[in-house]
Amino acid sequence: MTSRTDRALGAVLGSAAGDALGAAYEFKPAVLPPTPIEWKAGGPWERGEWTDDTAMAIPLLDELAAGGDLRTDAALGRVVTRWLGWAHGAKDVGIQTRKVFGALERQLGRLAGLDAADDPGHVARLCRAAAAQVHDVTGRSGGNGSLMRTGPVALGYLGDRDAVAAAARAQSDLTHHDADAGDACVLWSLAIAHAVDTGEIDLVGQLGALPEARAEVWRERIAEAEGLQPHEIKNNGWVVAALQAAWSAIHHGDSLVDVLERAVRAGDDTDTVAAIAGSLAGAKYGASALPRVWVDELHGWPRERATDLETKVLLVGRRVSDL
Ligand SMILES: [Mg+2]
């Protein structure tokens, strides 16, 4: 039996565990049964080490734990400043996010005399403008990089659907100008809030938060995903395919570990699909559904472990709700 607190912890730890489980399989072909999915090191990643997905979620979680409101540019600007610090030493930064940060830093460099970092609201506005610029130049900005980090957002606004939706889209818009990315974050965050509150997963039930025409598009995408296995959904670096692959894993899975393994089997952007799946599945099954050894070995930027994430989630709970 899961408690509301266990499920809130699950939204963050489930995502981090999926991230670390998938890290060793990133950019590789699909892995189908009966080949087991192993908790192991791979590429630049140690066993149990989370990647950019969790690293970018942590400043969002920290901001909520400190009492910040992700619907404000001041809070978002503080998050962006921490992302920039992380990105300089990071082992991996997503292509689209790297482009946005590059454009932002050129802009901040021009403003160095004004010390833009003293005005976090201005940093947030510049970051959104850089995201729009990348969208205009490349013609696309629908990467999965804002959905992968959205796991903690709902925890700051449990019981307030409008606030969950607004905060989810606001954090997405910082780096991902494409409406699909914002829509995906809104749907997923509302589903996480619902799962923490009820122990049930209901993604279709969140479609009412989108404009009617967008809701219909997403209704079809969700239905399509339910008819496919994660590895049958191609191009999962795209936010729509990443959500579909994660949803397929959840729809077909029957435990948190099963969901995460199904997500990793998708191949390609395995850690991100599993991080996305883990945030919602973790909010249903709870952190207690994770193997103890995974939780014990989880670690990553900024030199933190699962216990640090747990402390922050509980702090958010104390600040904003009755977890
Ligand atoms: Mg990653």
Automatic annotation (TrEMBL):
**Sorted alphabetically, which InterPro entries does this protein's record hold?**
ADP-ribosylglycohydrolase, Ribosyl_crysJ1, Ribosyl_crysJ1_sf
Which keywords accompany this UniProt record?
Answer: Hydrolase
Q: Which domain of life is it from?
A: Eukaryota
Reaction catalyzed: alpha-NAD(+) + H2O = ADP-D-ribose + nicotinamide + H(+)
Q: What class of enzyme is it?
A: hydrolase
Reported EC number(s) for this entry are: 3.2.1.143
Provide the family line: Belongs to the ADP-ribosylglycohydrolase family.
**Designated name of the protein:** ADP-ribosylhydrolase ARH3
Q: What species is given as this protein's source?
A: Vanrija albida
